Amino acid sequence: RHLVTRHGVRHLLLTSRSGPDAPGARELADELTAAGAHVTITACDTADRASLEDLLGTLPADHPLTAVVHAAGALDDATLDNLTPRHLTRVLRPKADAAWNLHELTRNHDLTHFVLFSSIAGLIGNPGQANYAAANTYLDALA
Predict the structure, then answer these.
(1) Please, what is the angle between helix 98-106 and helix 49-56, to 10°?
(2) In angstroms, how far apart are the furthest CA atoms of the chain?
(3) Cα separation of 64 and 138, whole Å?
(4) 90-142 residue pLDDT tens
(5) How many CA atoms lie within 13 A of 76 on its CB side?
(6) Model pTM?
(7) What is the model's pLDDT at position 48?
(8) What's the Rg (C-alpha) of the chain?
(9) Three-state SS letters, the chain
């Protein structure tokens, strides 16, 4: 909304693992379209490098990618004694792996912005969220 209303962005490619089936996705697309934007919502697991590469290959030449906003996140809380590889993967994959793929696969694009949404949990921690803290610290280091 901010990009459309404050910065006049007129072409948006919104991705998530659920794509147009994500809760509220269709309503958001309708709202942004009414505000004058052309909105494409697609399902893409950006943590899957091949899927992201395929998606980036579909971008039209007349509307090249100029900015990336990575706002993905997931929680799978567990105390440190109970933290398993599954807990780590479920949190690190959508945040850290996806950010790295976006970084790698857009480095040759003429980007004006590359935005990563992190959390203070990486700095101060949160009870039961060591995996989340690690994922956010990774984003801070990547930035």
Answers:
(1) 40
(2) 52
(3) 28
(4) 999 999 999 999 999 999 999 999 999 999 999 999 999 999 999 999 999 99
(5) 18
(6) 0.94
(7) 98
(8) 16
(9) CHHHHHHCCCEEEEEECCHHHCCCHHHHHHHHHHCCCEEEEEECCCCCHHHHHHHHCCCCCCCCCCEEEECCCCCCCECHHHCCHHHHHHHHHHHHHHHHHHHHHHCCCCCCEEEECCCCHHHHCCCCEHHHHHHHHHHHHHC
Residue 9: the pLDDT is: 95
Instruction: Work out the pLDDT band at 33, boundaries 50, 70, 90.
Output: very high
Name residue, tokens 């697991």.
45
Place of tokens 């072409």: 11
CA gap 83, 123 in Å, rounded: 19
Whole-number Cα distances in Å, 137 to 3, 4, 44, 116, 122: 26, 29, 24, 11, 5
Q: What mean pLDDT, rounded, does the chain reach?
A: 96
Nearest to 3 by CA among 139, 112, 129, 76: 112
